[in-house]
Specification:
Number of strands: 29
Number of helices: 4
Radius of gyration: 21 Å
Shape: elongated
Structural class: alpha/beta
CATH architecture of one domain: 3 Solenoid
Strand order of the largest sheet: 1-4-7-10-13-16-19-22-25-27-28-29
CATH topology of one domain: UDP N-Acetylglucosamine Acyltransferase, domain 1
Strand content: 15-25%
Distance between the termini: 61 Å
CATH class of one domain: Mainly Beta
């Protein structure tokens, strides 16, 4: 049994009220279930709710109104912001799956208002001068995985079983569907979408839709509409998409030509992303050879 110094017990309810996991209007601050093990050196806000059989190790900081469901393990030098919810079985901040990792304490930083569904996992960084980063307002569905040194922006969705390898960057508003695979060091651009079961080992440009392997099949039009992009902006992106990926030119040549004709802020987002690619860029379905440079 854990010692009394490691457990702070308050009245605890398993009722779900007003959409809050384990919430009750009669609960006291710092609600920690008696079966939870919380290291005395962990820093929990007084409003934190910690469920049954949770383990929170030293080095963890848990912010305002966070809710930690049953059997969750939070470890490493992990800083969690406000209003985050961890459902049953999540493992947050465990050691990176990297054979070169030597056990040095490393970091994970999580923003605000994220939802982590059942058995989601995220690993901390491989080196102490780096960190794995998750932004705010993201939704991670069951069994999704974010590996070491990934950087996730805001308003991102990872559906069930989506797997991100190490050092992946996912920009704001991206949607990665179920059972998708993202190779290490790849980038997923803002408001890009991956269709279910697709896989990429090259960068996925902003606003585009990935299918199968390293292929794109047009713009994420619905995502653009929902994000408030105007019809004029969407039309310009469509013309830019054709100029870059369906022009019959090699990508470098198409990129140089496009810069002479597209100068709006929304076009610049895509142009700068493509120009910065180091692993190559996913190419339009049926036009794979045109991006081979």
């Amino acid at each position: 049994m854990p010692s009394s110094t490691a457990i702070r017990t308050r009245s605890f309810s398993l009722e779900q009220k007003s959409g809050n996991l384990y919430s009750s209007v009669k609960q006291s601050p710092k609600m920690i279930h008696p079966t939870a093990i919380v290291d005395p050196d962990a820093k929990l806000d007084a409003t934190a709710q910690v469920g049954p059989f949770v383990v929170i190790d030293a080095g963890v900081t848990l912010g305002v109104n966070c809710v930690v469901g049953p059997h969750v393990h939070i470890t490493g030098l992990t800083t969690v912001g406000a209003h985050n919810r961890f459902h049953a079985g999540c493992v947050i901040g465990d050691a990176p799956q990297d054979l070169k990792y030597d056990g040095t304490p490393t970091r994970l930083r999580i923003g605000d208002h994220n939802v982590f569904r059942e058995h989601f996992t995220v690993h901390r960084s491989t080196l102490p001068d780096a960190e794995t980063v998750i932004g705010s307002r993201n939704y991670f569905m069951q069994h999704a995985h974010v590996a070491h040194n990934c950087v996730i922006g805001d308003d991102v969705i990872l559906a069930g079983g989506a797997l991100l390898a190490g050092h992946v960057e996912v920009q704001d508003g991206a949607f990665i569907s179920g059972n998708c695979l993202v190779h290490q060091f790849c980038r997923v651009g803002t408001l890009a979408m991956m269709q279910g079961g697709s896989a990429i080992s090259q960068d996925l440009p902003p606003f585009t839709v990935a299918e199968r392997g390293n292929e794109i099949c047009g713009l994420n039009v619905i995502g653009l509409r929902r994000a408030g992009y105007t019809a004029e902006q969407r039309h310009e992106l469509k013309r830019l998409y054709h100029a870059l990926f369906r022009s019959g030119k090699h990508l470098r040549e198409a990129l140089a030509a496009a810069r002479d004709h597209f100068s709006s802020p929304v076009a610049k987002v895509m142009l700068d992303f493509v120009a910065a690619a180091k692993r190559g860029v996913c190419s339009d379905v049926g036009h794979t050879f045109r991006a081979e440079e």
